[in-house]
Amino acid sequence: MRALFLLSLLLFSFACQPGIDQTDAQENEVTFDVKDHYQKSTHYITMRDGVRLYTTVYSPKDNSQTYPIMMMRTCYSSRPYGENAYRKSLGPSTSMMEEGYIFVYQDVRGRYMSEGTFDNMRPIVHREDEQGTDEATDTFDTIDWLVKNIPNNNGNVGQWGISYPGHYTTAGALSGHPALKTSSPQACIADFYFDDFHHRGAYTLSYWGATPVFGYQKEDTTRTAWYRDYMVDYGTSDLYDFFLKLGPLKNSAKYYGEDNFFWQDLSQHPDYDEFWQKRDILPHLKDINHAVMVVGGWFDAEDLYGPLKTYSTIEENNPNIYNTLVMGPWSHGDWSRNNKEQIVGNISFGEGVNQFYQDSIEARFFRHFLKEGGDGKTKLPEAYVFDTGKKAWRTFDTWPPKNAKESQYFLEENGQLMTEKPSAAKGLDEYISDPSKPVPYSERIKVRFTPRPYMTDDQRFASRRPDVLVYETEVLEEDVTMVGDLLAKLKVSTSGTDSDWIVKLIDVYPDSTQNQASTPKHISLGGYQQMVRSEIMRGKYRESFSKPVPFVPNQITDVDLPLQDVFHTFKRGHRIMIQIQSSWFPLFDRNPQTFVDNIFMADEADFILAHQKVYRNKQHASAIHFKVL
């Protein structure tokens, strides 16, 4: 079991660094020898407050021309360390590595070989405090040093990053340095209260094991992952059982003490208070004066909120810059891989998807703005997005598309989804939510720090449960393409004083659907219920994430649950399904179904059964609202 845990830790180190290690993991696909074509140098760059950041530079050996600088700043290590230790691949993609750029990697403050103190989602302060330092000022100071000291650079700088490095890219876009010409935040964190560790007030329990990665300061500069000594050995491959036996979150104290500052941050700030609000980067996304390309994956379990909100906020606040959105059929960071066939969970989205993105979208974007003068005439659209039902790329002048029309499905009796509002005076569906028997998020729960395949999982296992409500359309007579935002407007009641509400949007395949060559042997696509979109709402936050309010037991209450954007065609012959439930374990923590001030301090006695009702009548109609093309 110890070996299993260490393997999961290794996989987590890959998962944290999709732009680095996942690319390196494809080394069998890459014949380009970095050491033959690039010269490595390492530097300590001094920031304005005297803190020195460890920076690695890979410069093309061909010095007959000048090159733009491509930079990634990371909390996950700029390894390998040492002048003679080279990365197996450089930059966002093989094509850009072969084309030739000066690639720069930097450990951010407080991480690995850099000096200073690490701060999770360090607040942006430099615009209010001229003496303040943040990720934007560190980016400015780094760029300023690079363009003045690295030979053969052409004075143009681009930056990119995936996941947490994507957040550093967003923050760096606020630096205002005149040499910065492009930024590409990818799978970027925007707000830790809505990305990664929380979803709409619910704590992401499946990331519990990752807490030490962000919770311990290193004592000195180091080349190794110091936090590994604090990682929890689950002692089992059954995480459903592990977390049930753990009980209330307060029992985590046996694993995470006061020295784990990130766990303390999480447990002391259950609401969206000032601590989280000042770490939200979205309000700062103003006065950006260079080209931006935001990239995300439709099946990104960690950071789907971040890219969509980053793009829309930049678009709203900076209308005169080149700002484009790319959304593909990817889980977290998949687009940086060299795999020929793009697969998420059990579902294939075809061959050549990643190569097309890397060569025809990403490399083209950076080449134009960093090498070709950057007049904006790349002919890249405003939105380059992948239809996950038709499995094809589409382009749009706006996102969501202007010609999308409002539509909705109402919940009806006998598990029906109907386009017309219910006419019956009475009507509801009900179930018992038992926190001792929570609904699993997947039929196959494995040891994972950041579970991903569930985003396209078959939901037939959930449809069979008595604590999951199921509604579906008749067999579709024509394609239905959902595009843009989704909103579940529920009319509910609970016998308790708090409750979680989970809504899933599902594509039900015809029974006659044949397996693909890549379909796992234990899977049958005939009748497959593919999850397309899903989200959770902790009910006490239905009015405000900062000021939770209890439910009045058995009183009909509005719960509006936004799901993330979607672009999916439900094909003719398929059905559209909605599932509703009140637990999703151990993806998210269990709601005690009793209102508590702090879920991290809840006692076992707070966890009670609740009688849940979802209303579907003329006066209280529950529905899912969406846009169609």
TrEMBL record:
Entry keyword Signal: yes
Domain Xaa-Pro dipeptidyl-peptidase C-terminal stretches: 363-625
Keyword Translocase recorded: no
Keyword list, A-Z: Hydrolase, Signal
InterPro entries according to UniProt: AB_hydrolase_fold, CocE/Ser_esterase, Galactose-bd-like_sf, Xaa-Pro-like_dom, Xaa-Pro_dipept_C, Xaa-Pro_dipeptidyl-ppase/CocE
Record Pfam families: Peptidase_S15, PepX_C
Domain of life: Bacteria
GO molecular function, one term: dipeptidyl-peptidase activity
Residues annotated as signal peptide: 1-18
Residues spanning the membrane: none
NCBIfam families (alphabetical): CocE_NonD (TIGR00976)
Entry protein name: Glutaryl-7-ACA acylase
